[in-house]
Write a structure and sequence with these properties.
Blueprint lengths: L6 H35 L5 E4 L6 E6 L2 E6 L4 E3 L9 E3 L25 E4 L8 E6 L2 E6 L5 E2 L6 E2 L1 H4 L7 H4 L17 E3 L6 E6 L3 E6 L5 E3 L4 E3 L12 H9 L8 H9 L11 E12 L5 E9 L17 H10 L81
Antiparallel strand pairs: 1-2, 2-3, 4-5, 6-7, 7-8, 9-10, 11-12, 12-13, 14-15, 16-17
Length: about 400
């Protein structure tokens, strides 16, 4: 209530009341406009949405309340599904329309804190680093593959598109022979002239890719496929030295199943294991246990089999004079020709790597395992050259046009 002493006082009070009401109305209007602005930034009330300019920035909307977020350095926001909050490596996200990124947090061998990056030495084509929170973990692509700067994965040299020493022609030390057009082969195969276990597939007869057979096999030039060593004369003894050394130095008398299987398949004569025993109870021998109960005590006898000399059961070593006399009486047979390169160990099919742990709340995923398997063997999925004649994919090359294979390393 206002008590006016004059007409002027009454007028002043009325104006004050009106101004107060106007202020309240304006405040409500501003609040409404501000609320409308916030709501308009969220396309829908709930979800995750990419920034229109910066590829590693995004927004979370919860009941029309917008919160700005940023991926860890080296990763970008993947907006394929607005219901999923997901940051992927930069090369896995299309940042064409939003190319800006946060300031790099570089360290040694890591241009950014997280991701996969090529080795700084340009001639180290297959070497790269997995960077996890600034820590560089060195990795190497499987044999015959190189690191791709575009995809951050290991690919064939001709797919990597790298230059200099990492150019496909420099990485693969092989040139596809020029075949006549009558050869109906889309992707002919040629034996590696230096290694029995490997061969080259010439994509559309032009681009070579080095492939390998399974452990225990060699490449058969006549069939154009992997085969047992005994069927390829020049590679019949390719694994002999390897298996001989393996079984001679084996500890525990238990060979690895994959190596034992490969040795048998390759035709290698696997040595006998240590002499087995048979346990046979004796009716005349008893032993009293701690509980006072008499029980039969087993008698261990040798198995009924001839004595076997093997890497697991060696005879007593004779002195040098005895050995010399034996060699004079029975000279050893001439040594076989030196083989090309030592065979590769059994291939697991997928290379595994161990990612380092991190204390960040948004750690990058482990290294990818999407590069080609190490056991190449057969390929029927190579792209066909549109200019090439129709042919059977991966067919063998006629033996008359195969390059000669040497039986020893130069």
């Amino acid at each position: 209530n206002y008590y006016c002493t004059s007409g002027n006082d009454w007028l002043t009070g009325s104006v004050f009341i009106m101004l107060s009401q106007v202020v309240v109305v304006l405040a409500l209007l501003l609040a409404t406009v501000s609320a409308q602005d916030i709501v308009s930034d969220c396309p829908i009330p709930n979800g995750y949405f990419a920034d229109s300019i910066q590829c590693d920035k995004y927004y979370e909307c919860v009941d029309n309340v917008l919160t700005e977020k940023v991926c860890v350095d080296g990763m970008a926001f993947n907006d394929l599904n607005h219901r999923v909050e997901k940051c992927d490596f930069i090369y896995q996200v299309d940042c064409t329309s939003r190319p800006e990124l946060q300031t790099p947090q570089a360290s040694e061998n890591c241009p950014r804190a997280n991701g996969y990056y090529a080795h700084p030495e340009p001639n180290r084509c297959s070497a790269f680093f997995f960077c996890n929170v600034g820590h560089a973990n060195p990795l190497v692509c499987p044999e015959s593959l190189v690191f791709s700067l575009k995809t951050g994965t290991c690919v064939w040299p001709d797919e990597a598109g790298r230059t200099g020493d990492c150019n496909a022609g420099n990485v693969v030390n092989f040139t596809c022979p020029k075949e006549k057009s009558i050869v109906a082969v889309a992707h002919p195969r040629y034996a590696d002239p230096e290694d029995c276990q490997y061969f080259y597939v010439c994509i559309n007869g032009k681009v070579p890719r080095r492939n390998g057979c399974n452990f225990g096999q060699v490449f058969n030039s006549v069939l154009g496929a992997c085969d047992l060593p005994k069927t390829v004369p020049e590679c019949a003894e390719y694994y002999v030295d390897y298996f001989t050394e393996y079984f001679a130095t084996l500890k525990g008398n238990v060979p690895a199943p994959e190596i034992l299987q490969a040795a048998v398949n390759s035709g290698y004569k696997v040595p006998e294991v240590a002499k087995r025993i048979r346990v046979r109870p004796s009716s005349s021998s008893f032993a009293t246990g701690p509980d006072g109960v008499r029980r039969r005590r087993p008698t261990v006898t040798g198995a009924d089999r001839p004595e076997v000399i093997s890497p697991f059961h060696r005879p007593q070593i004779a002195d040098e004079e005895t050995i010399r006399q034996e060699l004079e009486k029975n000279p050893p047979p001439p040594k076989a020709p030196v083989r090309r390169r030592r065979p590769s160990r059994p291939l697991s099919g997928r290379r595994t790597t161990t990612a380092t742990t991190t204390t960040t709340t948004q750690a990058p995923p482990p290294p990818p395992l999407d590069y080609p398997a190490e056991d190449y063997v057969y390929y029927d999925d190579y792209p066909a050259d549109p200019d090439a004649d129709t042919a059977l994919p991966g067919a063998a090359v006629p033996a008359s046009r195969l390059p000669p294979r040497t039986t020893s390393r130069n």
